[in-house]
Amino acid sequence: MARIKTTSIILIGEMKTGEDDFGRPVYTTTEQEISGVLVGEPTSDEINDVLQLHGKQLAYVIALPKGDENDWIDKEVIVFGKRFRTVGEPTQGIEANIPLDWNKKVKVVVYE
Q1: Cβ distance 32 to 72 under 8 Å?
Q2: Structural domain boundaries enclosing 34
Q3: pTM for the complete prediction?
Q4: The domain that contains 69 carries what CATH number?
Q5: In a domain, 2, yes or no
Q6: Do the domain assignments include residue 34?
Q7: How many domains is the chain built from?
Q8: How far apart are the C-alpha atoms of 54 and 66, rounded to whole Å?
Q9: How far apart are CA 72 and CA 15, in angstroms?
Q10: How far is CA 94 from CA 36, 50, 67, 87, 104, in A?
């Protein structure tokens, strides 16, 4: 039986590392490797929906492994060595009801 091929992507985030002299938060950029990710081609309906709602060109739909707890809303990601940005809310199914290893989908658009 053939195995489904997955890849790793990089999730770029920010972590609060302190405060400046005026009490405003200071953040450091972090990069987290997420392995076991499926990268798929969006459907024409998904492309049209994102274009109408956000005015952006949808590049990929990524499927995340079960158990992922990261924040995927409006984040930068690196997929296949190129920088993208997530758009919209991730869609998630109930882990126990999904037979494969992925239960969350995130849409990514070309980073500008």
Answers
A1: no
A2: 7-16+24-110
A3: 0.83
A4: 2.40.10
A5: no
A6: yes
A7: 1
A8: 27
A9: 14
A10: 18, 24, 11, 21, 9
Q: How far is CA 42 from CA 39, 50, 63, 75, 105, in A?
A: 9, 10, 11, 19, 11
Asked, for residue 1, whether it belongs to a domain, the answer is: no
Is the CB of residue 107 less than 8 Å from the CB of residue 51?
no
Q: Is residue 31 part of a domain?
A: yes
Question: In which residue are the tokens 């053939």 written?
Answer: 2
Which amino acid does the sequence have at 79? V
Q: Alpha-carbon distance 111 to 35, whole Å? A: 21
Look-up of token digits 């990601």: 77
What string of pLDDT tens digits covers the 112 residues of the chain? 668 899 999 999 999 999 999 999 999 999 999 999 999 999 899 888 888 888 888 999 999 999 999 999 999 999 999 999 999 899 998 988 988 899 999 999 987 6
**Cα–Cα nearest to 79, from 103, 47, 111, 53:** 111
